[in-house]
Specification:
Length: 400
């Protein structure tokens, strides 16, 4: 980079100079994203003379921008521009509880006990939804993200090792995104059990997802020491972030499917025509909700669905383009060959009814190493690109 030498005595900073505004130096500082390059650019800027107060103001403005961007990571993307964001709860019902004894409860240490009468009306089985609407919307319809069993909407947010998740990816592509915590998950809240939720919640050990989600190579593959874990060969899951993934896990029930379907139907009734991307346990919900509202569901994206819809109503789905996506290592697992076979049988039934269905096995598409939670894998954006390409091919992206 050329540097301008200034000889003593130093002239006024407003004195004429052949180098009027240091645009190129500022641009290099902004693009460098590194402290070393910034310091080099700053040295050049500091030796530059200015012809006006406006030039001086531009210098300090550029300096502030350079200081800010110098601290950003090398792979930083442009800021996401939103026209709106917010949240709401939807669905649920009122339930009466009676016959319970009144209790005295001290809510805070050293506080005054209060009488709590558990008898009365409760709001239960609602669902939480958070939405992000891009300033430059390119998707023809909103995109709804539905998580799997024992998880929440965090599934689609930042990955366990700190990278951008699918929520941000699809926002950047111009989709209005609605991300939810289903009934009895996260911010949707619990209800009394077994009075309202039948049965007990299911809790998972630290090792369970590692061995069941095709991250590790079967039973006994987990170890507290990351270096001793037996990952699937060529696994794309970020092993260094596994502890963070476990922190996402929440208790779940196996008796709340009807309530969850009802809440998702209520979400669609509120949002309107939409596309649903669903994962694992939500396979049952995605297909059943589409069967309940076929006029409002414009496309289905099934990410390794662990369940399917009602086979007797499969013809209802014939006008909804559908994409099934399966990851790697399925044949090495004890359960997933059968789960996948159930999904493919449902896909075949949809095709036989006249539906448009595409099934993608990622290894056959040249994308290898994906676990059951492919939206968190290191190549998650490559998988998202595949989905984006499919959506574009279905005519679901607005034309410029």
């Amino acid at each position: 980079m050329r540097r301008t030498r200034v000889n003593a005595p130093r002239p006024s900073i407003l004195q004429a100079s052949p180098r009027v505004i240091p645009r190129r130096a500022c641009a290099e500082a902004i693009q460098a994203f590194s402290v070393v390059r910034f310091l080099d650019c700053f040295a050049s800027l500091a030796m530059t003379r200015f012809t006006s107060l406006g030039s001086l103001r531009l210098f300090f403005t550029s300096l502030a921008i350079a200081l800010t961007t110098a601290a950003l990571p090398a792979n930083a993307d442009e800021p996401i521009s939103l026209r709106d964001m917010g949240s709401f709860h939807v669905g649920g019902r009122l339930v009466e509880i009676s016959g319970k004894p009144v209790k005295e409860v001290t809510f805070t240490p050293g506080g005054v006990p209060a009488k709590v009468d558990p008898n009365g009306t409760y709001q239960v089985e609602q669902m939480y939804v958070q939405y992000f609407l891009p300033a430059n919307e390119k998707g023809a319809y909103p995109l709804l993200l539905w998580h799997g069993g024992g998880l929440t909407g965090v599934t689609y947010e930042t990955t366990p090792d700190g990278r951008e998740g699918w929520l941000n990816y699809f926002l950047r592509k111009g989709w209005s995104v609605y991300n939810s915590d289903a009934v009895e998950r996260g911010r949707a809240g619990w209800a009394q059990y077994p009075d309202i939720f039948k049965g007990e919640p299911v809790f998972l050990t630290t090792a369970n997802p590692f061995e069941r989600f095709r991250i590790g190579d079967g039973p006994g593959s987990y170890d507290p020491d990351p270096g001793k874990r037996r990952l699937m060969p060529g696994s794309q899951f970020p092993n260094e972030g596994y502890e963070n993934f476990v922190k996402q896990n929440v208790p779940r029930w196996t008796t709340t499917d009807d309530a969850t379907v009802a809440a998702y139907v209520a979400e669609i009734d509120r949002v309107g025509p939409c596309i649903i991307l669903f994962h694992s346990q939500a396979g049952t919900f995605g297909f059943k909700v589409a069967q309940a509202r076929p006029d409002k569901v414009k496309a289905l994206i099934a990410i390794e669905p662990a369940g399917v819809g009602d086979p007797a109503k499969v013809d209802v789905l014939k006008s909804i383009p559908t994409l099934f996506v399966y990851g790697d290592y399925i044949e090495r697992d004890q359960r997933w060959p059968k789960i996948r076979a159930t999904g493919l049988a449902f896909a075949d039934a949809m095709k036989a009814a006249g539906g448009s269905v595409d099934v993608v096995d990622l290894p056959k598409a040249g994308i290898h190493g994906n676990s059951h939670v492919m939206m968190m894998d290191k190549n998650n954006l490559e998988v998202a690109d595949l989905i984006q390409t499919w959506l574009t091919g279905q005519g679901l992206v607005k034309k410029p």
